[in-house]
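W.,

You were right to be curious about this one. When I first looked at the sequence I had no strong expectations either way, so I just let the prediction run and decided to look at it fresh. Below is the sequence, 212 residues in total, followed by the output.
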Amino acid sequence: MTKAASRPKLAGLYALTPDLADTVALSARTDLALSGGASAIQYRNKTASAAVRLEQAGALRAICSARGAIFIVNDDIELARAVGADGVHLGRDDASIAAARARLGPAAIVGVSCYDALERAQAAIAAGGDYVAFGSFYASPVKPNAVRPAPGLITEAKARWPDINLVAIGGITAGNAAPLIAAGADAVAVISALYDAADISRAARELVACFH
């Protein structure tokens, strides 16, 4: 079995954390998301200090390990390495896939934001990326000015690269996830509709149900 084949695949609900300074609250909300069926967590915090990010990433790494979930760190290869994350997610201005592999090893999952660009996805896949993320498909309070592709982009990407995992992101809820899944999304990445929900575990279950 090749290293690529042995790396776990993202599928279903991919929960992305909000900028939350309280590590205890963040951990509790993440645990609820996992209890509701999230299969992967991405630690994403654009505002915290390095010390807080290390504390939070370590706490979430432990929760994911206990629940058998995939744990990904957004942007920061060194933080991913420090906490033993399963991988890293890279954006347009982040390090290269080759740099991530060099630091994290061949078993690491490397995902790449591709926005609305199939050519970016092509380059990421050629460089050995494990999954590509497209979006924002819907209006998102996290990235209000993001590009807005149509669901057909996922269908075209799946036709080109049937063996690559495709992640949809941006304003996704249980009420609007179905067209993206029908188009071919293997996973949906969700922040607000999950972490801001009054009942996080229920919100997670409703999102997971969209795949069935």
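Here's what jumped out at me. The chain has one domain: 9-209. And, maybe more interesting for your project: The two ends are 30 Å apart (CA to CA).

Coffee later to discuss?

I.
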